[in-house]
Design a protein that fits this description.
The chain is of the alpha+beta class and 155 residues long. It contains 6 helices and 5 strands.
């Protein structure tokens, strides 16, 4: 089963402000890196080839990143072992520290792509229930089997 991920961030200024300019300048490069990474399947994007105009909440300063990967190891490799890590280290320059859980991982059926509504549902779930096989982080690397068992127990 492919793995979806969502992460949100609250910008320190409008996307076209000076404080965000270096972040914006790196978007295309980092998106190309993701698309060329092993295990990459899909990413959310708008007409500008990124997702900065797509709203997940009713807050113009919250931006969303969402993608699908073949497995958790591929996503982890991209996030922490590629040149993406250099951008991640600079996150405090552009974004406020989120007070609530700002990322979630979950499994999707083969061939299905998650929507922003799906992402919001997973974020809401992890905020309310903590990590479960339905929505989790890299700390708890649940498997597709864990998800099936979790769903069976919930029914």
């Amino acid at each position: 089963m492919p793995l979806a991920q969502v992460n949100i961030s609250r910008m320190k200024g409008p996307i076209d402000s000076p404080v965000m300019s270096d972040f914006v300048a790196n978007l295309d490069r980092i998106n190309r890196l993701a698309e060329g990474s092993p295990g990459f399947i899909w990413r959310l994007k708008d007409d500008g080839n990124n997702a900065t105009s797509i709203k997940i909440y009713d807050d113009d300063f919250i931006i969303v990143n969402m993608s699908v990967w073949s497995d958790i190891e591929s996503l982890f490799g991209y996030v922490y072992r590629s040149n993406h890590a250099e951008i991640l280290k600079r996150k405090k320059e552009w974004f406020h520290k989120m007070q609530e859980m700002h990322m979630a991982l979950w499994y999707v059926e083969d061939g299905l792509l998650p929507s922003v509504t799906d992402a919001r549902e997973r974020l809401d779930h992890i905020r309310k229930h903590g990590e479960t096989p339905y929505a989790f982080t890299f700390k708890n690397k649940y498997s597709p089997t864990d998800l099936k068992e979790y769903i069976q127990k919930s029914v």
